[in-house]
Amino acid sequence: MANPAKNGMEFSTIPDFWRQVRHAPTRFLGLDYDGTLAPFAIEPMQAAPLPGIVDLLRNLAADPQTKVAIISGRPVDEVLTLLANPPVTVIGNHGFELWPYDGTRVVRQPTPEQLQGLFEIRGHLQQRGYGPMLEVKMASLALHTRGLEPVTAVAVEQEVLTEWGAWALRYGLECRWFNGGVEIRCSDWNKGHALSDLLALQPDNVFAVYIGDDETDEDAFAVLKNRGIGLKVGQSGKPTAAQDFLPDCAAVADFLRQWLAVTGPAEK
User: Do 221 and 232 meet the contact criterion of CB atoms below 8 Å apart?
Assistant: First the structure.
């Protein structure tokens, strides 16, 4: 796990991490948003990035040897608003939206079957009284339980996972837990696919790192096996494909500061 050291942050399972960062000819840094760059909030648009994050992203993007991308389950427009239009590539809706910096926005479309499944499940959840907890996205339904009593939140999440998991599969959907709820989403595209596409555009010798906090980020961590390093924010006790951990969002901000210090002119 990452620990603050005299000369900065260290990773016990990756003792040469910062040496690899420093000497890499090219670098790729992928970042989730919620729970990574911003603490959680009950109201999604109240989940503001930690102070200094916006400037850190702009400074990271100014390095021609480092490519930065935000890969989020949120719609792209929300990420752009919350991060004040960062000069980086933004992936939204678990990969269904791609907005390259200075590029053309690309939007994948769910199949008609997937759209029908999302419509039907949405109707059933609304009949159950879960309408106020639902966030309707272009390729998923997010049922938010943040703000409920913990026992109630677990019960609601388990109900949705149990009752709608099999139903979702019939339509090419899947039910996945996230930090603060359950999401019913298209199963044929995720953060891992989006990350693979971004890495395919990078040189073969790129040093790739991805930081995220929950189950939706496991797809990205899995892609980096033998190709880079995944760092998970927090420790849930559940199995993870990440190689090491960062304690919280504040540690992520410290990580970004150290990345800049290591890759800056004075360190080379």
Answer: yes
